[in-house]
Design brief:
Largest sheet: 7 strands, mixed
Number of helices: 14
Strand order of the largest sheet: 1-3-2-4-11-5-12
Shape: globular
Number of strands: 12
Strand content: 15-25%
């Protein structure tokens, strides 16, 4: 079950055409239908504004974005259990869901959302592309939950991955960078942009990866939960858990970002959301089974379909919920993107502002977290 990990631990631009294309195409498609999907109304009384509560700084609402993935469990559970709304008083929490990092970054930049749960690679890309002016990472949310799942009839060992067709969610996304880095560590060659080489890297939306695997058009996938467990349910085998490649088996998979403009103008609202996040993480740790059910219930609200137990249970166990943004691992992930040829060496100075998170943690008697030297000076 997820475990709380609340303690420890020249401006660059996106220069490779592959990253530019990866970022641009989803935005062009989404331009006609807004940046994300408005999360469906949840009539649970837990999310309603309490009678007699007051607005924070007089603000009517705060717009929050997240993905319909279990790696965004804090957002799913916090919404379902009304824990964000509890801290926000009469300032209404409004939600949008996303399927791709670039679209959520665009929504943040446009003001369509104020705060979001998102992976490290989109955070790095958004920060560097804006010359450090668009966002700040203000907290952690999850570690782990990424696996290489393969067809056991075609791939019996790690060396058998060579020559096979392996999916990642999107060119330049967090799992794509990790897989390209792993390929390089094996001494194999792959062109990062095209995905062609000693391994065929097939960029495939997580929603269709299980069907593509089932049809035989893919030999495996390097994917986050719950997609990994969906593949296992289709007969796949976990060949590698990415956590085994990291010190202490911890690496950032989801963090919390905020618009710098919103952070400057409404720090009390941001602090309230962070209080809700820390409270949610503590509730998850204390109530793992209820939390798992709450996350699944919110997934059903958002997508119309809950996860079956044979997918939900193993997926939930592989994710560690954390307040710590694991900043040192984000820096390493940036280095992996540079190594893959997807990013010039970035200047990530100032990408973190953990002031409010550490304030909340101190008030709760928890250990503060570190920004690995990448915080606001």
């Amino acid at each position: 079950m997820p475990a709380i990990r609340s303690s420890r631990s020249s401006r660059s631009t996106l220069v490779r055409r592959g990253i530019a294309v990866a970022a641009a195409l989803p935005l062009l498609v989404l331009a006609a239908c807004s940046y994300g999907s408005e999360a469906k109304d949840d009539t649970s009384s837990k999310e309603k504004v309490a009678a007699g509560s007051k607005k924070i700084d007089g603000l009517d609402s705060v717009k929050i974005g997240y993905f319909g993935n279990l790696t965004h469990a804090t957002a799913l559970v916090g919404r379902q259990e009304g824990l964000f709304q509890k801290e926000l008083g009469a300032t209404k929490a409004e939600y949008s869901t996303f399927n791709a990092g670039p679209s959520e970054i665009e929504a943040l930049n446009s003001g369509s959302i104020d705060i979001g749960w998102i992976g490290p690679s989109p955070s790095i890309n958004g920060y560097t592309k804006s010359n450090g002016k668009s966002l700040r990472i203000i907290g952690g949310s999850a570690s782990g939950g990424v696996k290489l799942v393969v067809n056991p009839k075609k791939i019996k060992s790690l060396k058998d991955v060579k020559g096979k067709k392996i999916a990642t969610p999107q060119l330049g996304n967090t799992q794509d960078v990790a897989f390209l880095n792993w390929i390089a560590d094996q001494g194999w060659k792959v062109d990062a942009e095209s995905g062609k080489g000693d391994v065929s890297v097939v960029r495939t939306d997580n929603k269709i990866t299980p069907d593509a695997y089932k049809s035989g058009s893919l030999d495996g996938a390097w994917v986050p939960e719950p997609t990994a467990s969906k593949l296992v349910a289709e007969g796949g085998k976990v060949l590698l858990d990415e956590s085994t490649l990291w010190p202490d088996k911890k690496f950032v998979i989801t963090n919390i970002i905020v618009s710098q403009k919103f952070l400057k103008e409404h720090p009390k609202v941001v602090e309230a959301v962070l209080k809700g996040s820390v409270e949610t993480n503590a509730w998850i740790a204390a109530n793992p089974d209820k939390a798992k059910a709450a996350a699944n219930a919110q997934l059903k609200v958002d997508s119309g379909k809950a996860l079956p137990a044979n997918v939900l249970d193993p997926a939930w166990k592989s994710i560690q919920i954390t307040n710590d943004p694991l900043a040192a691992t984000l820096n390493t992930e940036a280095e992996h993107a540079v190594k893959a040829g997807l990013l010039e060496k970035p200047d990530l100075s100032g990408i973190y502002d953990l002031t409010l998170l550490n304030k909340v943690l101190k008030a709760d008697g928890e250990s503060t977290v570190d920004d690995a030297g990448l915080g606001v000076k």
